[in-house]
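Deliverable D4.2, example record:
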Amino acid sequence: MLTSIVRRQLTLLLEREDHRIDLAHAALLIAQEEYPDLRPGRYLRELDALAHRVRQHATAAGSVREIVEEVNHVLFVQEGFRGNAEDYYDPRNSFLNQVMQRKLGIPITLSIIYIAIGRRLGLPVVGLGLPGHFIVGIQADERILIDPFNRGAILTLDDCAARVRAVYGDRLTFHPRMLAPVSTRQILIRMLNNLKAIYAQSQDPARLLAAIDRLLLLDPGDVHELRDRGIVCQHLKFYGQALADLNRYVDAAPRAMDADKIRGVIRSIEREMAWQN
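Output generated by the structure prediction step:
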């Protein structure tokens, strides 16, 4: 019952135009399925309070860079938020309530907090989908690139290139277009993809299915997520849903490289269902 209520709330939130979606609220609704006692309002008020503390100490005439320095002071000095490099793949790093409680997160969840506070302060802060290392940017008189995972470090283009190189080595070369702003939906999709990868690796099909369900709320037309949900549903013996998803996949992508393989899976499910009957 709670899951259906929370998903309905998330669906209603996602019906808004992208720039009107409250990013932090959406992230908290995603977390609420895992933490049923979570009350999003509590954490939204905490974000309000953090922004208020910054506002109290940042002068009205201060530059954007001075406000950024005050945000960094509140978040990373006073509150002690930091990147969880020691246990990067702990799923709690991807749930905003847990990040706010534990003061530990990964680049994207710490960036969500930074964006939420920046927007409360009227800063034009956006998420930047740097491959392998999410950061935020502020475009004012000058562009400021900020790394919330590393205590709000101010980055240069060379720093961004180094972060990409640290993750991908010679397999991917940094280009400034990698710093294009991403939408609210894209941020939420990236966060859920982190959870999806963790649950796939840990072989937790029920949570994996929940992550894919929410990815499809964000992008109902993503046929690859339909395929993946179908495979997970097959594993869980939810054969009706598996057939529906996999048939939709091969109808939408009949020449995909794995289309014949998926058709074989469909036939296998049909045989299993016939045997059960």
